[in-house]
Every structure is written in C-alpha cells, then in structure tokens.
Amino acid sequence: MTEGAGDDPAPDAERIRKIVHIDMDAFFASVEQRDNPELRGKPVAVGGSSLRGVVAAASYEARRFGVRSAMPSVTARRLCPDLIFVKSRFDTYREVSQQIRAIFARFTPLIEPLSLDEAYLDLTDHLAPGQTATAAAEEIRALIRAETGLTASAGVSYNKFLAKIASDQNKPDGLCVITPARGPDFVAGLPVGKFHGIGPATVRKLESHGIRTGADLRALGEAVLRERFGKSGGWYWTISNGIDHRQVKPNRIRKSIGAENTFFENLTTLEEAGERLADLAAKVWRHAVRHETQGRTVTLKIRYADFTTLTRARSLPHPVESEAELLSIAIDLATTVMPDPRGVRLLGVTLSGLLRNEPAPARKDGQLDLFAED
C-alpha cells in the first residue's frame, strides 16, 4: 500500500527538515540472542516452529541462508537445516520497544512508530545548540546499545522516504546520511524494487513499461505517470525527484492490516483456499501483534480467474482474540463464495476496526506493512 506525497501539506520550501529513521537490527531474533547466550552466532528463527507456521523474524546468521520473515517454516528449514526455532515472546519485545521509545523521547516529541522496531523522528526543531541530526542519530544508537544491549541502524535525511531508505543502506549497526544535494541523484540510481511502498507486483508492472530505476520514472514525466498509474503515478513522480512532504505524525493511525496473494494456478476447492488463508491469517496476525493492535472486523477479498473481485466482511462485538479465530472467520467467509467454477486467482485477508493496546471486553460466553503485498 503506497502513501501519497499529497497526504500532508507541503512545508515551507526554504525549510530543510531533519528526519531520522531508526530501525532495530533483526529485532525479535536479536532480543532472543541477547537473552540466551547459547543462541548467539547461530541461525535463529522466531516463531514458525509448527509445520504450518510462518517465521516472524530471522537472525542475520539465518538470513545468510535466505531465511526471511513471513517465510513458511518448512521452507526456512529446507534452506537452513540447522535453523533454531524459538517461541516468540511479544510481551518482552514490547517492553524493549518501550525502552527504545523512551530514548527517542529524550530527543524529540515528534516520534512516529511504524512497528515495535522502527520509527521516524523529526529533529528539525529539537536539536541541541550546535548539534547535527547525524550526531543525534549516532547518540541515539549508542544509547540503545548501552541500555538494551541491542544494535540499531539509522537513516538521516531531509524527508521520510529517503530517511527510511538510508537506514537500510549500511545494516546491521550502521548509519547513512542522504543530504538534500545528494537526494535526487541517489534516487535516480535506485532500482524501483528498493522503493519503500512499491512491492513485487508493482515492480513487475513498472518493469513491463521499461521502468527500472528512479531515473526511468523521472524521465517519463508526471503527466505520463499519472495517466498510466493514476494517483500512484503522482507519488512515483515526487519520490523519483527526491521529494516527500509527508510529516512525522506522532499519532499515526493505522486503519487496517492486511495481506493478499495472487496464485500461479487458480484455486478450485475450499480445502486449497483454507491452506492459503492460513498463511495469510498468520501474516496478518503477526503484523497485528507487532503493531500492538487489535481489530473487530475481518474482510475476505477474493478475485476469480475472470478478474471479478468480491469482498465479504464480518464485524464482531469484541476484538478478534487469536490467529485461530481470525482464520476461522476468513474460512467461514470463503464458504459463502466458494467453490466457484471460474477458479480463484487471488485471496486477501484484512483486519480493521483497529484499536491500540485496548483489552478486549468481557464476552458473554466465557482485528489487527501495512498491506503485506500487492
């Protein structure tokens, strides 16, 4: 899901903002290695230990084998036979995340968390006399290491888009600065697959038009991009020029969390759909836990082979309480639209009606990237 550059009013053109994006390094896995010395230096996967499980996070040792978050555990095990699966401890991850956010708050009140392990900070009006944003980012990283025993990478730039890209450049435990003078040229040489907010399906679509880099986007011009890609085309144009006017929003509200997948072969049975929905529900629930969010409405998206697209939704009087409940509702919704002789080429699951850190009310008998992919 792409955020448009027009979501916020443009700041004063003469005013150069100082934005830092902090991203913890392999956060969940690093916490486990910190707390259990026997895991240090070994390939570790958090979660996903069951046959139908999904990896929630992977250590850098595991990533060298190709293990990634959201990967089915059977695939991860095949790639890395010595992979060590550990049970997730989200209460611990949340506690550490709160420690890290307390460090951020020493530098600025303008903090926009994206998840437990990353956040934007706007330091424009909150630097100490003579202090640079780069020096502040280094100090934040040093405090995180000293107080939590973990490492973080940082990106420093004049807008959110470039700050987030910068934080990926020197991982792990690194820092990258993209200055206003460097920004447009940096983006020009960047493959579109590296643009945050542009997923694999969109990359394939862009590449089918011969668009492979930021320079290619820029060369087409704004009018052509809008004609071909609608509102997203305007966003592609601004970021291809290193422009992003979005503000750091301390009270950023996520409206929904969802995941969807397009299949190489059409699904024809409910059993097949149930298997794919299990993967989608696991991905959505993992993001929900990571974002400390609950939701009450489950929506199923289904696209048939003839590209007819339907949605079915169910709202509960209470937040969805578990991944199993999320999956059960999604399967129930699927039974209303399957089987169908056309076959199914896409399924999606979304959790909306979101709440943050709000306990579920008592039940008389006794919902929660970030679309994962487009």
Automatic annotation (TrEMBL):
It is an enzyme of class 2 (transferase). It holds the Pfam family IMS_HHH. It catalyses: DNA(n) + a 2'-deoxyribonucleoside 5'-triphosphate = DNA(n+1) + diphosphate. Keywords: Cytoplasm, DNA damage, DNA repair, DNA replication, DNA-binding, DNA-directed DNA polymerase, Magnesium, Metal-binding, Mutator protein, Nucleotidyltransferase, Plasmid, Transferase. InterPro entries: DNA/RNA_pol_sf, DNA_pol_Y-fam_lit_finger_sf, DNA_pol_Y-fam_little_finger, DNA_polymerase-Y, DNApol_IV, PolY_HhH_motif, Rev_trsase/Diguanyl_cyclase, UmuC. The active site is at E118. Poorly processive, error-prone DNA polymerase involved in untargeted mutagenesis. Copies undamaged DNA at stalled replication forks, which arise in vivo from mismatched or misaligned primer ends. These misaligned primers can be extended by PolIV. Exhibits no 3'-5' exonuclease (proofreading) activity. May be involved in translesional synthesis, in conjunction with the beta clamp from PolIII. Belongs to the DNA polymerase type-Y family. Monomer. This is DNA polymerase IV. It comes from Paracoccus albicereus. The gene is dinB.
